[in-house]
Amino acid sequence: MQVNSFILEMQLSVPDFYSQIQPQLTRVEEKMRIQAENYHPDLKNALEIILSSGGKRIRATLTLLCGKMLGAAAEQSVTLASAIELLHTATLVHDDLIDGSLLRRGMPTLNSQWSPGATVLTGDFLFARAAKLAAETNNVDVMRIFAETLGIIVNGEIAQLFSKRYLVDRDNYFSRIYAKTASLFETACKSAAILSNASLEIQENLGSYGYNIGLAFQIVDDILDFNGEQITLGKPVGSDLRQGLLTLPVLIFLDRYPEDSNVRSLMSHGILDDLSQPSQFIHDISRSEVLDMAHQEAEKFVDMAISSLSDFIESKEKSALVELAKYITARNY
Amino acid sequence: MQVNSFILEMQLSVPDFYSQIQPQLTRVEEKMRIQAENYHPDLKNALEIILSSGGKRIRATLTLLCGKMLGAAAEQSVTLASAIELLHTATLVHDDLIDGSLLRRGMPTLNSQWSPGATVLTGDFLFARAAKLAAETNNVDVMRIFAETLGIIVNGEIAQLFSKRYLVDRDNYFSRIYAKTASLFETACKSAAILSNASLEIQENLGSYGYNIGLAFQIVDDILDFNGEQITLGKPVGSDLRQGLLTLPVLIFLDRYPEDSNVRSLMSHGILDDLSQPSQFIHDISRSEVLDMAHQEAEKFVDMAISSLSDFIESKEKSALVELAKYITARNY
To answer: What is the pLDDT of residues A98-123, one digit of tens each?
Structure first.
């Protein structure tokens, strides 16, 4: 059974890479929770609903590990990691509203309980608090990359909104998952390097590490959308395809099975509305070798991420980053 | 007839205070328009729709005048003024969506033409670009006050959302218009002082100036909601009350006419759903002396704003700020 509480999840199956930064990660969790103190009580309730659905806090973990490896001040790292994780949380609040998602990680979303207006404003408030935390790092370059990344994420969501239900190619897919996931993974690592006054080369190497595991992370998510259990996913299997979103497994399937009836229908009309049997199509994709093939692509990105760390001297944090990269493709939720 | 285009509005009836910063204000307009360059083409279209509805750009004007008076670098002032005005624009995009407003300044709102999802994301994108512009000032204190102000504005909107249709008192009203309007006016002026490396005293004085004209500005808006022409307002007369929002003219009316049938109904039940004749109530308020009384309160805030400038030596910019303050209560749109 999927364990939804972050705390419980951590207690039951804690990958080792968390152990290096566990005390700081606990402070990140606290820092996020107090962001609505002294504001409208309903905002506090909303934040509680949102944060209690847990999550792996991978982005915060990346910032903390990179920062610790490079000797960043611990409190500044915690602040930056909180800003990154809260920015991610804010985008999820608006995403779930726009997609009409009622569950995330098996828990009710804010929009399933609150009005659209209150949900929009709560997301806005989280953006504001994330920006405030980023400003508290007292580092203008961190602020700049932070704001840029938000622009990239939102631009990607708009592109996705307008391209839904249309055939896309690999370039389009990778642009989308960069905007959606890899950009913030990249920033989580790179901004920790900036905060540590690291050289441009180190900033680039850590950025590349984050970028590559970000791509791998999203590919694995897209695979899990086909082979996960509904109760584990907290949403129906094949939900991306049902919503008109083509991901890597589908793109590989289209390439390998041009004679499949659903593929022929798709390719001839170019829009997903013509898909006559989505359930059968999802079933066929799930049972084929394309999920393994997509997984192999994700593993290549993990290898590239680990290569980006080759210039760093050995340390507990570097080992944890390597382990974290391997975990990205090993996870099954 | 209401002139909706900013440029036309400026050409036809330019208050003198604009003349001090006209070239910079033109650059602010350009800077806002290019924020969607290199992003999804629909974002560019959206920005065009939003900015073409014009506006007085009062907030940008405040930043530019304060910055010029204190000797801030011209380009940095333009960047900050663009950030402030774009932040304001972003909040309007989400406000109009939440309120279901179809017109703003007589022009169709974005949400009247786009899906709710696309409108939410466009607002988010504008927040991101506003934060990016704020970061480009290279001033951490400016970034911090900027993020704080966004938090205050959004918190105020949430409080307003949850208090709609309920009786409010003066304290509640002034808290709301501080969050809604005066906070950003305050920040527009104070951040220009921060950018100019002005003393804390100067920062406070200019902040107080912005705060007071911000309160006056919103009170005048709330009066215009009762005595403006529908075509000038770009929305129905009395729209706040119809939406369940009590403003200063109503609060004064409640106080002065406890025996009025609508007032008695309101006071006995405490919620606006019990208002049997909203149109009659709006008519009665519009024809009474309470609009003049509210206007006198606005003028007091203008006087306080002008007093906040007393320590500054005479200059063209100071004269323009005084003139701008007087314009706040003299305007009729």
So the answer is: 989 888 888 889 999 999 999 999 99
Distance from C-alpha of A174 to C-alpha of B66, rounded to nearest angstrom: 46
Is the CB of A120 less than 8 angstroms away from the CB of B98? yes
Instruction: Show the low-confidence residues of chain B (pLDDT under 50).
Output: 1-12
- Nearest by CB: B40 against A117, A135, A155: A155
CATH number, domain of B167, equals 1.10.600.10
Cα angle A291, A307, A22; round to 5: 85
Q: Which of A94, A129, A139 sits opposite B124 (nearest CB)?
A: A94
Q: Which residue is it, tokens 């109904």?
A: B265
Domain contains A156:
yes
Which of these, A72, A62, A69, lies nearest to A183 by C-alpha position? A62
Residue type (1 letter), B305: A
- Please write the tens of the pLDDT for every residue from A29-47: 999 999 999 999 988 989 9
Domains: count for chain B: 1
Q: Which of B 125-154 lie inside 8 A of A, CB atoms?
A: 125, 127-129, 131-132, 134-136, 138-140, 143-144, 146-148, 150-151, 153-154
A-chain residues near B162 (CB < 8 A):
40, 42, 118
Cβ contacts from A onto B, under 8 A = 145
Q: What are residue A168's phi and psi, to 5 degrees?
A: -125, 165
Is the pLDDT confidence value at A84 over 80? Answer: yes
Measuring CA to CA, how many Å separate A256 from each of A259, A280, B17, B200? 9, 17, 68, 68
- Please identify which residue in the block is written with the tokens 């949850």: B162
For residue B1, tell me if it sits in a domain.
Answer: no
B114 in contact with A, Cβ within 8 Å: no
- Tell me what pLDDT residue A192 has: 98
Q: Could you please report the per-residue DSSP string of B47-98? A: HHHHHHT----HHHHHHHHHHHHHT--HHHHHHHHHHHHHHHHHHHHHHHHH
Query: Which structure tokens are listed for A192?
Result: 């920790």
Helix B116-135 × helix A74-99 angle, to 10°: 160
Taking alpha carbons only, the member of B292, B278, B321, B264 closest to residue B70 is B321
Task: For residue B294, give the amino acid letter.
Answer: A
Test mutation, B35, B114, B153, B155, chain A, max A CBs within 10 A: B155
Taking an 8 Å cut-off on Cβ atoms, the answer to whether A139 and B136 are in contact is: no
Taking alpha carbons only, the member of A211, A190, A231 closest to residue A304 is A211
Instruction: Determine the residue type at A125.
Output: F
B100-122 exposure pattern, b = at least 16 Cβ within 10 A, e = fewer = ebebbbbbebbbbebeebbbbbb
How far apart CA B298 and CA B314 sit, in angstroms, is 25
The H or E element containing residue B21 is none
pLDDT of residue B9: 45
The letter for the amino acid at A35 is Q
Q: Is residue A104 part of a domain?
A: yes
Domain carrying residue B77: 6-330
E strands present in chain B: 103-104, 107-108
Nearest by CB to A118, which of B118, B136, B161?
Answer: B161
Q: How far apart are CA B320 and CA A151, in angstroms?
A: 36
Q: Which residue has the tokens 């359930």?
A: A279
Task: Kindly state whether residue A1 falls inside one of the protein's structural domains.
Answer: no
